[in-house]
């Protein structure tokens, strides 16, 4: 391995912190910034991997275990992609992907492999709820124990589109094509369509609660979010409300996601890493020869390439010759763009707390994350709030919690990030059945992988690791066939 992760905190260009008492600071400290390798001129790699998020890191480690000569090229000044851990004023913050679960098979294997541990986000199970109804004009304070039965009933009703809790749609949650014909019917629906179908049976408050929860999941207005992705989450959550909540937003890696990214990277052998190196084009010369061109005009060549660029920004990469027209069409379509995530440090702790508000409230869900409740994690909808504006965020949080005072806000605007184009993956109506298979298709010697196109936990860290593993199987098969 030519570059090592030595756990030194450096400032990355990503993220910001805005202290109430001082100005805006961009660039947060993280150990995800690693020294780049010096690549020897004219090296011909077995595989060039574009992107050092969890998909790219997994692929790099697995290929290096097969003794492949690998170049990992990353546009950012750090590894980890849509995840990174930062430390500020003695607190650890996750700026992107955070929560994992033991039932997520790929990520849990890595937790075991590297001896990592998990810690609970306390507010994820808060009993004290603030619910903002009627376009943000009415605040209701409730307890989850009061709402528990009703929330479960409504979630069951919403998901029970086929009379058996979605089981005919995703009978095998890690195989999105196990019931392809049935999927086609339900894939036409948006999340809003489904809410409309059951709305006459819901109280106005439960309708608004569902709107808040569902639009938080897709990070997009419900009319643009595919219903079938809700059923996929539901199936992965064992068709049960609180198991789904636990799996998606309760437990995080104690050591931080960056610790996992570093552990995978440190296990790579014979992998050269180039950071701060955006790739602008990929040229196929023949079946065994590709060249990538970086923004500063450097060329690197290899036998194959794995492209792990997020779906919402992949359209910017030039392919020479062009990809198959159907592939390029689905790339150009992209997916829901997501919103933003932030953390605020409070002057006074508030204990375990959670707030919900329906779209178009700029914050749909916020909850306390730490033991005493002095840190709130919030999710901004689409571009309805500028999370760098401490006063704007305070104004919105005060609708839920009128008395809180904020010390600082810390976050990263993934929606405007040119290398991410959003947060986690959620497809629009019709895209699962019409686009996913095409997105997964490889055009050897070009191979594609991303959490955004995974089969199971698509849009999660687990999906990235799944996709990284899958693509390595295809690349290995191809390389072995070529040499026979
Ligand atoms: C705010 C937020 C919250 C989330 N919450 C959770 C959660 O709680 N749990 C969970 O499991 N998941 C969560 N996710 C999703 C999860 O983080 C992602 O699905 C996963 O990390 C994506 O991994 P990836 O490797 O496929 O893509 P990425 O991490 O995006 O990696 C792709 C890499 O490619 C690089 N790249 C892009 N273009 C180029 C180029 N032209 N040249 C070179 N490099 C390029 C990017 O910089 C990036 O590093 C969250 C994501 C966000 C943003």
From TrEMBL:
<dbReference type="GO" id="GO:0097621">
    <property type="term" value="F:monoamine oxidase activity"/>
</dbReference>
<keyword id="KW-0285">Flavoprotein</keyword>
<comment type="function">
    <text>Catalyzes the oxidative deamination of primary and some secondary amines such as neurotransmitters, and exogenous amines including the tertiary amine, neurotoxin 1-methyl-4-phenyl-1,2,3,6-tetrahydropyridine (MPTP), with concomitant reduction of oxygen to hydrogen peroxide and participates in the metabolism of neuroactive and vasoactive amines in the central nervous system and peripheral tissues. Preferentially degrades benzylamine and phenylethylamine.</text>
</comment>
<keyword id="KW-0274">FAD</keyword>
<feature type="binding site">
    <location>
        <position position="379"/>
    </location>
    <ligand>
        <name>substrate</name>
    </ligand>
</feature>
<dbReference type="InterPro" id="IPR001613">
    <property type="entry name" value="Flavin_amine_oxidase"/>
</dbReference>
<dbReference type="InterPro" id="IPR036188">
    <property type="entry name" value="FAD/NAD-bd_sf"/>
</dbReference>
<dbReference type="InterPro" id="IPR002937">
    <property type="entry name" value="Amino_oxidase"/>
</dbReference>
<keyword id="KW-0560">Oxidoreductase</keyword>
<dbReference type="GO" id="GO:0008131">
    <property type="term" value="F:primary methylamine oxidase activity"/>
</dbReference>
<dbReference type="GO" id="GO:0005741">
    <property type="term" value="C:mitochondrial outer membrane"/>
</dbReference>
<feature type="binding site">
    <location>
        <begin position="74"/>
        <end position="75"/>
    </location>
    <ligand>
        <name>FAD</name>
    </ligand>
</feature>
<feature type="binding site">
    <location>
        <position position="279"/>
    </location>
    <ligand>
        <name>FAD</name>
    </ligand>
</feature>
<dbReference type="InterPro" id="IPR050703">
    <property type="entry name" value="Flavin_MAO"/>
</dbReference>
<feature type="domain" description="Amine oxidase">
    <location>
        <begin position="54"/>
        <end position="475"/>
    </location>
</feature>
<protein>
    <recommendedName>
        <fullName>Amine oxidase</fullName>
        <ecNumber>1.4.3.-</ecNumber>
    </recommendedName>
</protein>
<comment type="similarity">
    <text>Belongs to the flavin monoamine oxidase family.</text>
</comment>
<dbReference type="Pfam" id="PF01593">
    <property type="entry name" value="Amino_oxidase"/>
</dbReference>
<feature type="binding site">
    <location>
        <position position="55"/>
    </location>
    <ligand>
        <name>FAD</name>
    </ligand>
</feature>
